[in-house]
Amino acid sequence: MSELSITRADCLARDAQDPLAPLRERFDLPPDLIYLDGNSLGARPRAALERAQQVVAREWGRDLITSWNTAGWFDMPKRLGERLGPLIGAAPGEVAVTDTTSLNLFKALAAAVHMQAQAQPARRVIVTERSNFPTDIYMAEGLTEWLERGYRVRLVDSVDELPAAIDADCAVVMLTHVNYRTGYQHDMAMLTRHAHQNGALIVWDLAHSAGAVPVDLNAAEADFAVGCTYKYLNGGPGSPAFIWVPQRHQATFSHPLTGWWSHAQPFAMAHGFAPADGIGRALCGTQPVVSLALVECGLEVFEETSMEAIRAKSLALTDLFIELVETTCADHPLGLVTPRDHARRGSQVSFTHPHGYAVMAALIARGVIGDYREPEIMRFGFTPLYTRYVDVWDAVAILKDILDREDYDVAAERGAVT
Amino acid sequence: MSELSITRADCLARDAQDPLAPLRERFDLPPDLIYLDGNSLGARPRAALERAQQVVAREWGRDLITSWNTAGWFDMPKRLGERLGPLIGAAPGEVAVTDTTSLNLFKALAAAVHMQAQAQPARRVIVTERSNFPTDIYMAEGLTEWLERGYRVRLVDSVDELPAAIDADCAVVMLTHVNYRTGYQHDMAMLTRHAHQNGALIVWDLAHSAGAVPVDLNAAEADFAVGCTYKYLNGGPGSPAFIWVPQRHQATFSHPLTGWWSHAQPFAMAHGFAPADGIGRALCGTQPVVSLALVECGLEVFEETSMEAIRAKSLALTDLFIELVETTCADHPLGLVTPRDHARRGSQVSFTHPHGYAVMAALIARGVIGDYREPEIMRFGFTPLYTRYVDVWDAVAILKDILDREDYDVAAERGAVT
């Protein structure tokens, strides 16, 4: 322990000086829980309970059908998009909150493939990483198999192989900016530039980036992006996802999921589809209003700080976690999976352990909530809006205790740790 | 008025004897409002407020990520499908509540087209009605245009032309069981039989049927169905939709929206898509839990009665409305659009009036909530769970007063009546 550069008292002192510390009060966190799983399901903003009551009791119960206009239900996907946009470097009118990440990815991939079919029809490959979140690959395969015509998905085994895989056959590159298991963060600007120089379009999945790390889609000149609102954006369980289409691509943005919400005149009930101008054409059907409304409560909190301040604390928290684990648990077979390089790190830290599943189950039983991903990976997410330095200290002390005493059940059946 | 077979006192007496009358207490309806728009947005079940609080405060706020298992979030689409199934003649394991009606229609159409591509590849036409809900046609066109290979949508102008349009080119018939504007109800058993006899598969949209009229999909041997939970099922604004896939088609049910929730082992994060058995393969991405959970509050009410009892009252209410309007407003240019034939009528009544938009606006201002659809159509939906006979009487009395006094603004700008 003598090698540590910091004490628990130092952690408390850092919390006392932390400019983000007051934002923890905006969340309703259970006492005695150290919640390091905001990368899976963000904590509940306090405002969400009152907002849910308002939508259910007043907007639905009392005002009924009129709320589509008077409570702004119909415009909510675009209104929330305006509030989310600054977190990812989007310009006004470029983001909608709607449907699921999987479906938005399908729309973006379909649009990118369609654009390439017009411009460079010989390009029929979607390039992605084998380590991408599986549903992204499933959606890409679903699209290419249905298109037939020789479209296919090419899986790349390592980041190093990625540049060469973006070749003359490549129509679209589909990457998740921050990897869900390792926390590795791609160089968005460099890879986007490389894709463009090689004739490809690029679609970014920001599921583990939005609200977690600074993102500037327009500065990178990215083509399309999608992402999730229920992780670092604290929108609530399964809350609708987002899609970003930059202005320069909006006029040609075309996908097959053409429901009435993407029509230029949705209430005209017109015969024949005419796409809306702008981001409206990324919509499809009627949205789940109650879940959608709660997304606003998560976004509001971000407006009281900046992604730069969040990033500074995120790196401080993850640096601290890595140092404490590597120093105090040095005798145990833990392997750091997440990059030490700040530029390549998201807002999570993953360690392998031969009994990772059992150790994580023991941590959860002791009130430290992380999660587990095959193979052997323990994931710890750090949400600067509500995670304290002392939480990091205490989480590592509990981890050390579990490991030192081997206080975990290696025979525990796997499956239930989400 | 002397021709009327009934008085207001008679209506009150019918309400007093109505076996469904106690169910009105299960809903939180604003006082002094006659709500005849449950065909657009169903009223709020009282239980929904407490359920929303439970999901937001306890399941999300307190139990956080563990609720995916402990609160049954992950299985909710199937669990709600089991409760919805009996209302539409589905067997266990055949219904999921998920995504939107538009997206579920896309999945069902894609699966039907795929099945026909294997069995009868020369059939490349989707037959539907020009008067179908526009989004259904948009989605079918979105699918056929993206498939290319000669697929196209054929629009039929009248019910009479429908049988002949189901010809040797027809792969799939796509019909909305009860028309959203007219309230016309198709003969599901007859048209399904006719489609099958002519080599076509048939997809039914039950948006205005589920919870409104008795439906027996398995008795009709229908192929696929989709529908809405926020109209007659009272699931809440924009609540997730449903999809029905009968057991006989589940093994071959294939669509391009293959997200991780439709994977055989969603948490294995496996490489390569392997579809789940059963209705699970109709799922796609993570669902909006708060909105989804409220669907249960609507479905619970149906378990205290039967679709036969609901249908009997629905026909009594719509018969009464038609009689009262036609008798007391006989001097006004109203035209009944909805069939008089019970077998062909849904649970709504539509009348045209040259100033239909202005008259509906006047009704709404007087507390009678119906809605308007071009051209000239005033729609009145009747929800037997909470609509009383005296509501019908009072609504018609107000309509008569507005018409007699011409107390409506014909210059009112159109647009805001949803």
Automatic annotation (TrEMBL), chains A, B:
The modification N6-(pyridoxal phosphate)lysine is found at K231. It is an enzyme of class 3 (hydrolase). GO terms for molecular function: kynureninase activity; pyridoxal phosphate binding. Its EC number is 3.7.1.3. Keywords: Hydrolase, Pyridine nucleotide biosynthesis, Pyridoxal phosphate. It catalyses: 3-hydroxy-L-kynurenine + H2O = 3-hydroxyanthranilate + L-alanine + H(+); L-kynurenine + H2O = anthranilate + L-alanine + H(+). Pathway: Amino-acid degradation; L-kynurenine degradation; L-alanine and anthranilate from L-kynurenine: step 1/1; Cofactor biosynthesis; NAD(+) biosynthesis; quinolinate from L-kynurenine: step 2/3. Its cofactor is pyridoxal 5'-phosphate. GO terms for biological process: anthranilate metabolic process; L-kynurenine catabolic process; L-tryptophan catabolic process to kynurenine; NAD+ biosynthetic process; quinolinate biosynthetic process. It comes from the Bacteria. Pyridoxal 5'-phosphate binds at T101, S102, F133, P134, T135, D136, T176, D205, H208, Y230, W260, T286. GO terms for cellular component: cytoplasm. Belongs to the kynureninase family. Catalyzes the cleavage of L-kynurenine (L-Kyn) and L-3-hydroxykynurenine (L-3OHKyn) into anthranilic acid (AA) and 3-hydroxyanthranilic acid (3-OHAA), respectively. Homodimer. This is Kynureninase. The lineage of its organism: Bacteria, Pseudomonadati, Pseudomonadota, Betaproteobacteria, Burkholderiales. The gene is kynU.
